Amino acid sequence: MKEIDSIESWKKGLTIVDDKIGCSFRIKDFIGRGGMGEVWLVDNPEWEIEFAVKNPRYDLVQPNGESIYKRNIKFFLIGDSNDIIFKRFQSEFRDWIKLPIHPNIVTCFYAQELLGLPRIFLEYIEGMDLKEWIAKWIKTDKIKDWEKTILTIAIQIASGMACAHKHDLIHRDLTPKNVLIYLKTEQRPGIVINDSAEIVSAKITDFGLVKKVMQKEINLRNSQINKQNAADDGDNNTQGWGTPEYMPPEQAGEEYSSINKAADVYSYGVLLFEMVAGGRRPYELEDHENYKKNKNFNPTEEVKPYFFKEMHAKYEIPNVEKYRKDCPPKLSSLIRKCLQKEPDMRWYKEKEQNDNFDYFGTIKKQLIEIYNEEIKEEYKPTTYINRVSFHIAYYLKGLSLCVLGNFREAMDVFDATINLYKYYAPTYNAKGIAALHLGRYAEAIECFDKAIEIDSDFATAYNNKGNALLEDYRYAEAIEAYDKALDKLQSKTNTKNTIGVNVAGLEKYPNNVNIYKHKGDCYERLGNYAQATIWYNKATEITATTDITSPTGVLQKTIVPKELDALIEQGSTLVENRKFQDALEKFHSAIEINPNNADAHSKKSHALIGMGKFKAALEAVNTALHIEPNNADAMVTKGYILGATGKYNEAIELFNKATYVDHNNVDAWINKGNCYDRIGRKKEAEYCFNIANSL
């Protein structure tokens, strides 16, 4: 089946299996579409919770009907045509997932590639965005106590932004569209909101333009890399990213790449002005001098940003009291402080007293004081966070950190999850996976055993235990664990499996091929090549299928060529045994299945190196790097080839890139040390070897 077919199959009514975490998701409805992404309502039957799932727009990533998405769960790598779209999407997930669970930030739970596109699983808010809310209640003047409600929303937004800034994240697109208003279950859109602020909860969303604040102390090499990344991500675009009506002057101008937290303060000022002024922003198109000269002035959508840019940069700051006569003077003054043209002038008096100034913490504090004075009662913060159980929320966050390769952070999150609920087997299984990636095999095995103790039919935990034993050179025990996994899977034949999907037979379980392949690895390392060949052949012969339910309820099968991995593994084993020609045939077979598999091309170069064909090897590894520019193993292989041909400085440059992408790549450090040693730079060589030894 072509990849494009699997992407198109994401539709309302479908049940999608995520075999990586052992659960299924049901697509309930399409929520909406933005400039680069679209959002779907999805639920999980086991957890009985709903998610808003965001993914890149299908039409933007499928030019001419051809998928340019290269499957790589860890990095979301893509082709050249849509680098900006995917890099922004990847950046959004990386930064958002690291924010703590906060009552005024939409929680980012999890990310995964499903049916050909990366998907971000977000907290689903039943209500409306702030733009809709302003149009419905403020513009129509239907709300009884505007002051209490608006101040409550303003305080909550400031609270969420204070949290984001505390974690060194700049939003860069804080607008009413990116603030969701949660309505309690007894309140629905269309029912008049009463005068109680307690029924409203504001949550900030859409961190697609978020910027990470860099540390003051940063070495030149990383600084150069960050500048390059900013250029690749569109950060040098002088028009900037964002919403022109809410953009501070510096974000719309040439200073865009150097904006700081003060940019969010300006956007917040515009947003707060709009709420207080009954839906009227500080600057509207009719305020522009061209409109005043010509009442028929009607600029195109393409040129409107330039007019807003000019007004934000040059026009006098309006007084919000002009549009809301009963606006408290202290609130009007606060808004004016936010709307200063120069970033350094926003809250400058307060900043002079504190080198580490907390913009939104200060704004929140002053708003609470205004609330207490004007409403004549003490402000009470919202206690609503979300409807997802805390242990599930933390569990999913831990999985997401694993996706990002942040296994140490993930371990801490899983420990917090276990403290919340000690009897959820998937948490121990996930913690074991994180420990396995950190090389802490004994701890990983202990976690998998605990998962099995809680759920004795947990086939995935047996499989992962086998993987840990395999890595710990305990091959006989690993085989026993794999056999247990296969036995548990076999017992599910013609029954509902643990992920809620009908499995007609053992050969159809998605992870089955990996078990066969890993059993082959164990036998091969025990020297039992006859058994190794049997299991490798089983893996090669099987085409795994994942059953999914169509909108009509009929089971469909998505064919996934899992034998590709087995061919690459067989080829690698043959290279280790110096059977280079046989290995080359395996890699050619893998490339025939998927010409865009970077690993197959990279491993092919290993066989060619063994045959002394360095030119052909270089071509193969260059192909791998063209497919996946950030493939650290391919960089190491190319560096080895360059070093073998005497091009040591070029090789060192590649090894530098490889260790930047994957700091724990031992081969990169060793080969880098060898190159330094060859050119007489003994201290650098020793440094590299020491790092390799520590890993």
Description:
- The chain contains 29 helices and 15 strands.
- Strand 12 and strand 13 form a beta hairpin.
- Helix 14 (390-403) packs antiparallel against helix 15 (407-420).
- Among the domains are: 3-123, Phosphorylase Kinase, domain 1; 127-282 and 317-375, Transferase(Phosphotransferase) domain 1 (Transferase(Phosphotransferase), domain 1), CATH 1.10.510.10.
- With 695 residues, it is α+β, with helices and mostly antiparallel strands.
- The radius of gyration is 28 Å and the shape is elongated.
Short description:
This protein has 695 residues and is an alpha+beta fold. The chain has a 6-stranded antiparallel sheet.
Feature tags:
3-stranded antiparallel β-sheet, alpha+beta, 51% helix, 6-stranded antiparallel β-sheet, elongated, Transferase(Phosphotransferase), domain 1, 695 residues, Phosphorylase Kinase, domain 1
Query: What fraction of residues sit in β-strands?
Result: 5-15%
Fraction in helix: 40-55%
CATH superfamily of one domain: Transferase(Phosphotransferase) domain 1
Under CATH at level 1, the class of one domain stands as Mainly Alpha
